[in-house]
Amino acid sequence: MRLLSLHTCVVVFISCVCCGSLIAQSSNSLESRRKALNDLLAEQWEHRLRTSPLFASFLGDKRWNDQLDDYSQEAIDKNSQETQKFIDRFEAIDTAGFPEQEALNKILIVRDLLLQIEGAKFKPWEMPVDQQNGVQIYLPQIVNTLSFASVKDYEDYISRLKQIPRVLDQNIAMMRKGMSDHLMPPRYLLEKAAEQSNAVATESPEKSHFAEPFFKFPTNIAPGEQKRLRDAGLAAVKDSVLPAYVRFTAFIRDEYAPKGRSEPGIWALPDGAARYRFDVRQMTTTDLTPDQIHEIGLKQVDEIEAEMLAVAHKLGFKDLASFNDHIKSDRRFYATSGQQVLDLYAGYVREMEPEPPNSSAAFRKAS
After folding, report:
1. Which of 237, 252, 269 is the last residue of a domain?
2. Is residue 20, in this structure, part of any structural domain at all?
3. What is the percent of the chain where pLDDT is above 70?
4. Confidence at residue 356, expressed as pLDDT on a 0 to 100 scale
5. Whole-angstrom Cα distance, residue 195 to residue 123?
6. In the prediction, which pLDDT does 27 show?
7. Whole-angstrom Cα distance, residue 249 to residue 269?
8. 34 and 112 share a domain?
9. 293 is a domain residue
10. In the chain, which end has fewer C-beta atoms inside a 10 angstrom radius, N or C?
11. Residue 147 lies in a domain
C-alpha cells in the first residue's frame, strides 16, 4: 500500500473542505430560496386581504372590518401595478431542488397573477353588475358573514354602512366607463339587477336587512351601549345606505339598463372571441379552443345517453323518451318531505366519502 505524499494529503484535505463548504452553501441557498418563496406568498396574501377588506371579512379576518373595498380606477390601476411587481418577484425565485408541493405553489400563484394581468385588458371592472353579481347583492350579504360579538364589531359595521354611498358611486363611475367602451351586460339581466337594488332601496330603515344586527345584540353588551349603537346604526341606514341605493337603482333602471346589449352572448362584446377564449383557458386550465371543449362535451353527452339507453332497455323501455316520461310521472321517485330529501342526500354523501381519495389517486396517475 503506497502512502500518500504530504502534498497529496494537503490537496485532498483542501478539496474536502471546499466540497463541504459548497454543500453547506448549496443547502443554505436552498433554504433561503424556500424561505423567500414562503415569505413572498405570505406577503402577496396579506396584500390581497388588505386591498379587499370584504374578502378578508368573509374569511373571518377582522383587521379591516371597518373598511370597504376601493372600486376607483386609481385603486384598480394600482392593484395591477402591484400584481406585476409580485409576478416579477415570484419569477425571480429559482425553485430547483424544492419539494414538489412548494415548487407547485410558485407555478400556481404565477399562473393566477398572470391571468389577472391578461384579463385586465378586457376591463371586467367596467361591467360590475348583473343579476348574479355586484355590490347590490354583495353588500347586504355582509350581515350574514360578520360576527357581532362586541361593541367594536358594531362600530366597525357602522363605519362600513357610512361608506356604502362611496362604494355605489364608484361602481356607477365604472359602469359609465363601460357604457362609453360598449362593455355592457345584456339588458334583460340589468333589469333584474335594478329590481334587486330597488328591493333594498325601498325598505324602511328598521326593516332593512342592514339593520338586523341592531335588533340582535349579545347579552355582554350593556343596554345603554345597545341603544347608542342601535341609534347610530339606524341613522347610518336611513341617511347613508338607503339614499345611496335609491340613486343606484335609478341609475341602473333609467340610464344603464336601457343601453344594455340585446345579444346575450359574450361574442357581442368588443373582442368577444378573444374574451371567450380567455375565459375558457382560465376555467379549464388548458389551451383547448372553445370548439374543442364543445366537442368534448358533445362526446360525453353521447356516452352518457348510451349508458342511459342501456339501462332503459334493461328495464323494458324502448327508448330514452319513454324512460324519462316514466321517471317524471311515477310518484315513487319523488320525495314526500324535506326531511326525506335531506336524508337521501346525506346517504349519497356517505356512499361517496370512501371514493374521492381513490379517484384523486387515479386522476394523478392518469395525468
Report:
1. 269
2. no
3. 89
4. 67
5. 25
6. 55
7. 24
8. yes
9. no
10. N
11. yes
Return the bridge partners of 186, or none: 261
Model confidence over 87-143: pLDDT tens digits?
999 999 999 999 999 999 999 999 999 999 999 999 999 999 999 999 999 999 999
Q: Which of 1, 139, 169 is nearest to 73 (CA)?
A: 169
**Mean per-residue pLDDT, 9-19:** 49
Count up the domains in the chain and report the number.
Answer: 3
Are 79 and 212 in the same domain?
A: no
Alpha helices in the chain (DSSP H): 6-51, 53-58, 73-91, 100-120, 135-138, 142-145, 151-180, 187-201, 223-236, 242-250, 272-284, 290-314, 320-329, 338-352, 356-366
Whether residue 6 has pLDDT greater than 50: no
Do 106 and 148 fall within a single domain? no
Q: What is the mean pLDDT of residues 352-365?
A: 60
193, part of any domain: yes
pLDDT score of 357 more than 80: no
Q: Is the pLDDT of residue 363 over 90?
A: no
Domain that holds residue 42: 30-120
For residue 237, give the nearest of 147, 163, 134, 141 by alpha carbon.
163
State residue 220's pLDDT score. Answer: 97
- Please tell me whether residues 215 and 130 are part of one structural domain: yes
- Same domain, yes or no: 265 and 136: yes
- Structure confidence at residue 28 (pLDDT): 67
